[in-house]
């Protein structure tokens, strides 16, 4: 007669044997062991091209404004690279999902990505007379970077009723740009709203304005950090448009509108009038002197 304890031991041995002979489990165990080394190799590859991402991100910030966070843009770009790299190991059935910001990438840039992935050679061969990585920047990266430059350098129309300073009254409500960004479902990336909708009126708060905003607990006392004010009406108009009304990420409760003091509204009226008169001139990216 076999004792109960012996049966239990045999059962455990059987389970262990099954686990270690499962192909998926065996391969995943190997992957777990090698993963730290793989991560280091991946990091080395990204470090090689990081300087290109940094230059492009800084260029975007210089053109759009200090609200853009270059580090956030770089991280999103790196994540996008990893998503696209999955296509190298695709079985042809699964579709690699695109990150939200990739939906707006120009068609030509997407075609280049798809063509390179079909060839199975995402990194072109080096050419004589070029520094390492230069061919990659020229042949692949230039399309995306050029697209950013073209978009931000196009003349922005500042006319019509939305650019009439008389619409700014002592009862007009405003919202912080960071809150508007979240309310429209654009995540925590600062500046994405201004890149996508450059026609919006935005006012860079100066130290006096930021002091009042902090006192009223509309924002934290952040020192030199930029803070933009936008009209609540403009943001709600955007939210009601076809681009946003059906978005599951819409969070209008994040707006937290407020009425600024008369002296601040007067400064915003003057700023709007200045921008309207010089429609081809970009809005100031640094706060005015107090």
UniProtKB/TrEMBL annotation:
Domain TdIF1 C-terminal: 172-268
Subunit annotation: Monomer and homodimer. A minor proportion may form homotrimers. Interacts with ZNF541. Interacts with the terminal deoxynucleotidyltransferase DNTT. Interacts with TRERF1. Identified in a histone deacetylase complex that contains DNTTIP1, HDAC1 and MIDEAS; this complex assembles into a tetramer that contains four copies of each protein chain. Component of a histone deacetylase complex containing DNTTIP1, ZNF541, HDAC1 and HDAC2. Identified in a complex with KCTD19, HDAC1, HDAC2 and ZNF541.
Compositionally biased residues, Basic and acidic residues: 101-118
Compartments it resides in: Nucleus
GO terms for MF: DNA binding; nucleosome binding
An annotated GO cellular component: nucleus
Domain of life according to the entry: Eukaryota
Lineage: Eukaryota, Metazoa, Chordata, Craniata, Vertebrata
Chain segments annotated as transmembrane: none
The name this protein goes by in its record: Deoxynucleotidyltransferase terminal-interacting protein 1
Basic residues biased stretches: 1-13
Record bears the keyword tRNA-binding: no
Coiled-coil regions listed in the entry: none
Short name of one Pfam family: DNTTIP1_dimer
Keywords: DNA-binding, Nucleus
Its biological purpose: Increases DNTT terminal deoxynucleotidyltransferase activity (in vitro). Also acts as a transcriptional regulator, binding to the consensus sequence 5'-GNTGCATG-3' following an AT-tract. Associates with RAB20 promoter and positively regulates its transcription. Binds DNA and nucleosomes; may recruit HDAC1 complexes to nucleosomes or naked DNA.
Domain named DNTTIP1 dimerisation: residues: 26-91
Chain intervals for the UniProt region annotation (Disordered): 1-20, 101-138
């Amino acid at each position: 007669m076999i004792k109960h304890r012996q049966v239990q031991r045999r059962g455990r041995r059987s389970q262990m044997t099954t686990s270690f002979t499962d192909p998926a489990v065996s391969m995943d165990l190997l992957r777990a062991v090698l993963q730290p080394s793989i991560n280091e190799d991946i990091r080395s590859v990204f470090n090689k091209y990081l300087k290109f991402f940094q230059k492009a991100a800084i260029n975007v910030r210089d053109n759009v404004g200090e609200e853009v966070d270059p580090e956030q843009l770089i991280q999103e770009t790196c994540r996008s690279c990893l998503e696209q790299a999955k296509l190298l190991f695709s079985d042809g059935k699964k579709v690699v999902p695109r990150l939200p910001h990739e939906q707006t990438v120009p068609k030509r840039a997407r075609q280049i990505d798809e063509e390179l992935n079909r060839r199975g050679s995402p990194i072109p061969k080096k050419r004589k007379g070029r520094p390492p990585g230069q061919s990659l920047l020229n042949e692949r990266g230039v399309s995306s970077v050029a697209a950013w430059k073209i978009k931000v350098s196009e003349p922005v129309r500042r006319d019509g009723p939305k650019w009439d300073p008389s619409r700014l009254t002592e009862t007009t409500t405003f919202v912080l740009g960071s809150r508007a960004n979240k309310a429209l479902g654009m995540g925590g990336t600062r500046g994405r709203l201004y890149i996508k909708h450059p026609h919006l009126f935005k006012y860079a708060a100066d130290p006096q304005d930021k002091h009042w905003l902090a006192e009223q607990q509309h924002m934290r006392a952040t020192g030199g950090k930029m803070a933009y004010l936008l009209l609540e009406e403009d943001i709600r108009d955007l939210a009601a448009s076809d681009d946003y009304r059906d978005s599951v990420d819409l969070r209008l409760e994040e707006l937290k509108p407020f009425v600024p003091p008369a002296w601040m509204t007067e400064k915003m009226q003057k700023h709007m009038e200045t921008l309207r008169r010089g429609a081809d001139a970009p809005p100031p990216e640094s706060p005015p002197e107090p």
